[in-house]
């Protein structure tokens, strides 16, 4: 059984998609990051970095309970555990390269683009331009790579496509104000729509739907999501 620590945001969504694609048994444990539940000592023992997603595999290697945190690490771990969605052995170097491209590039720059356009104080034009343009550059890199290809790595759908889907789903916020945010990237849009059409994707979107996560954006939420912006209590 997988204990899946979840909030409805892009990185947990990738893991939800993998779990639904494979049918691995799992239990959702909501972590309301807008309330600061990711900073609780009980959760920090699972992910010392205080971020979602994280999993605890009660049937890990040699039957030991195993924790894994960070969406990229979780996808790699689960792909190895199940032998699914990791391509061929020959694909491995390419798969790792693109997984880390998403983990270090597409994901963080997309997240910062959203932050500076929608959450940061107004007037930080340099940061808005920097992160949005870099996110768009990552879109273009993927779009160019996908010309003449159905998937990012190899000949079949893999965890790389799942990982990209999690952040491409936020394109409307990354490219805020664009009528068709993936329109300038037709091959990337085609990939997103292919993943979006899978039955497992619809199921992944329903993960956690019965839990009431905090909505709205107040001081509690700002302190929970951006604690480094506030001086420590003395």
UniProtKB/TrEMBL annotation:
Coiled-coil ranges (or none): none
What GO MF terms are annotated? transferase activity
Write down the Pfam families for this protein, in alphabetical order.
Answer: GST_C_2 (PF13410), GST_N_2 (PF13409)
Keyword Plastid on entry: no
PANTHER family linked: DISULFIDE-BOND OXIDOREDUCTASE YFCG, GLUTATHIONE S-TRANSFERASE-RELATED
InterPro entries, per database record: Glutathione-S-Trfase_C-like, Glutathione-S-Trfase_C_sf, Glutathione_S-Trfase, Glutathione_S-Trfase_N, Thioredoxin-like_sf
The UniProt keyword set, sorted, is: Plasmid, Transferase
Keyword Transferase listed? The answer is yes
Its organism's taxonomic lineage begins at: Bacteria, Pseudomonadati, Pseudomonadota, Alphaproteobacteria, Acetobacterales
What protein name is recorded for this chain? Glutathione S-transferase
CDD domains hit by this protein: GST_N_Ure2p_like
**Which top-rank group of organisms is this from?**
Bacteria
